[in-house]
Amino acid sequence: MKKTLKFIALILCFALIASFAACAGGSNDESAKSSDTDASATDDASATDDASQNAPAAEGAFKIGLIGPLTGGAAIYGNAAKNGAQIAVNEINAKGGIQFDYKAEDDEHDPEKSVNAYNTLVDWGMQVLVGPITTKPAVAVSAEAFADRIFCLTPSASSTDVINDKDNMFQVCFTDPNQGTASADYIAANFAGKSVAVIYKNDDAYSQGIRDTFVKEAEAKGITVAYEGTFTEATSTDFSVQVTAAQSSGAEIVFLPMYYEPASVILKQANDIGYKPIFFGVDGMDGILTMEGFDASLAEGVMLLTPFSADDPNAADFVKAYQDAYGEIPNQFAADGYDAVYTIYQALQESGCTADMTPAEICEKLIAVMTSISVDGLTGKGMTWDASGAVSKDPMAVVIKDGAYVTP
Amino acid sequence: MKKGLKINKTATKDYITYLVVIAAFIIITFMNRGGMLNKRMQGLLVPVCCYIVMAISLNLTVGIMGELSLGHAGFMSLGAFTGVVVSQSLITAIPNDVIRLVISLAAGAVVAAVGGFLIGLPVLRLRGDYLAIVTLAFGEIIMDVINCLIVGHDSEGLHVIFNFRGDKTVADLNLAEGGSAIIKGAQGAVGTKTIATFTAGFIIIMITLFVVLNFVRSRSGRAVLAIRDNRIAAESVGVDVMKHKMIAFVISTTLAGMAGALYGLNFNMISADKFNFNTSILVLVFVVLGGLGNILGSIIAATVLYILPEVLRGLQDYRMLIYAVVLIVVMITTNNPKVRGLFLKIIPKRNKTEGGEAQ
Fold it and tell me: What pLDDT, on a 0 to 100 scale, did the predictor assign at position B349?
């Protein structure tokens, strides 16, 4: 019994350490964030315990909520989108006219917590939701928002499950199938005749979704997929098996539909064994250059399909504002968050909504105008939406050269 | 005489546990009817019920049987996905939500029981921390198996494929017109019709309490307690160690499966990675901080510790930090003899029962 207790004590220590580590991940930009919590924090105290549901904002500002992983392993995406949205809100509020009251809630990249965060925001009186940022939470929340009739525009949840059969859900990012298809099309057009290896994360909806459509489109376009390797969350620290297999399959292009942390390990291990194919990533690869502890020179020559590049002259003002406020170069998620807020701003203007309307009224009006508006954002010129909620914009392929994105 | 008194005391403690749960249910139901609960609290009701059942059932393994299980979320996962598959495929056959919920919960419980039985068969024969090691592995295996599972339903019945090589998709199910995918491999179970209710949660807590409390007082339960306290002595008087441990462990996993089924039917989407090691540890934290072998303690700890991070949302980025500090403080104070002594002075009557509980 004593032994068991000792064991439990040990395990609990680990759990605590893990939870601290999770905190640390989210808090490295703590100092920068104090500025954006001021308005919401004061509101919060009075509003959260308020039992009145769906109460319209009193002071003439639309209440915009954002849900994303602000702590935990996916915190970098949530915080980027949150900060990007914050910049858009500040700009819009400074313009006069439509005013936004903005509040972000943490979901730890967990569907269960995301629904809790959503409910908290509804209690606060949220009228339009930006988010959730990541796919699985977005699927869980979209069903709730559909039932409650609250308009949602997610910056970066890319699965089709998010928007399927839900007229109130819209996306700023490409859907997974679109990314897979666009990647295959790009490779077919630019690297005809080269064989491709695919390494993907088969316990992740995002990675699996892109891989599925990529392989399908590759087949249609006559691209040979020489090797397919899989990994999971638990095995994302060592890729020697997959990389060696890709090398021995003779693949000249390695397609990596995944986020940048596992991709960085793959790049390192491929370099170690002297395997130098063309690495081709999708929007999750964005952020690899700013990753801590990663030798960015390894990413030289990596191609990725991303809608946003911080070197784009159109984005210069945004990049500067972001750097001033948060001290880092914004990634694509920040741009998605920024565009989401501006899209809502434009849609609210077109539809003539006022801040005293209920969320359901705003939802119906926004759905009506979403299919007709065209938004020029950081992640694409002339973005339009169809009734399903999927966005239509041009994907942009960039290649990493001297530590920056360049159009090939 | 002395013995009779003691049984009376434990019986009273059981009744108090029942009463607390029933009173909490009645109060919350009335508050909900009166519109006193906001949407956030309403959303938390069913998950709290699930975690309470998980904590009680794990307490049966860890506290009462004295074996450590680190993969309890694996059994929850079995129950959750079974429940979702059963409920979604019966949606046209049994339109009544309540009946379908009952069938799904039962199915989830049965599958988790079978899982528990298979795990227990080899492991419970061994001494030492082997159950902890095997259940830990089991939780991970279940997660990977469900990640490979693609299940769909159409007019011809269930279609199941195992996506071992990672090259199958929902399209490979060849579903007939009008069919739909229930589990999409790594994407999880998406589009579940949520039929879980707080009343159902309350009922499964009552079932769990009834089963566990009566089990502990039964012949088998006394045998399990005897094995926990001294296995050699128990064996020497003819207690069948394997059999009684097996009964306790299977009951524990069955209840976890039931909780999982309710959990799965409360969310539009669940994925296998939710039921990972962290969730197992979360439930273990509820059990340890509530007190090993203390059922009411598990209920209170599960409720408070689950709701706490949500209530702390007002603190923004600091909430998880505060949560961790609260955990440490609770752990230290409940085990500190000085602090305990202080509490005991304030409540002198609890002195004896507290001593008996602390084994």
Answer: 54
Asked whether the beta carbons of residue A4 and residue B129 sit closer than 8 angstroms, the reply is: yes
For residue B255, give the nearest of B22, B59, B67 by alpha carbon: B59
Contact A137, A109 (CB under 8 A): yes
Helix (H) / strand (E) element for B32: namely: helix B2-33
Which of A1, A6, A7, A8 is the best mutation test for B, with the most CBs of B within 10 A? Answer: A8
Domain that holds residue B265: 2-357
A319 in B contact zone (CB under 8 Å): no
ipTM: 0.86
Over 70: is that where the pLDDT of A31 sits? no
Residue B255: both structure tokens together? 């209840």
Q: What mean pLDDT comes out for the span B262-276?
A: 92
- What is the total count of domains within chain B? 1
CA dihedral defined by B305, B130, B264, B53, rounded to 10 degrees? -50
pTM listed for this prediction = 0.83
pLDDT exceeds cutoff 90 at B233: yes
For the segment B142-166, the average pLDDT, to the nearest whole number, is 85
Q: Which residues of B touch A79 (CB under 8 A)?
A: none
| Residue B139 token pair | 């939780």
The CATH number that applies at residue B66 is 1.10.3470
pLDDT digits (tens, 9 = 90+) for B5-23: 555 777 888 899 999 999 9
Domains and CATH numbers, chain A: 33-173+315-392 (3.40.50.2300), 177-306 (3.40.50.2300)
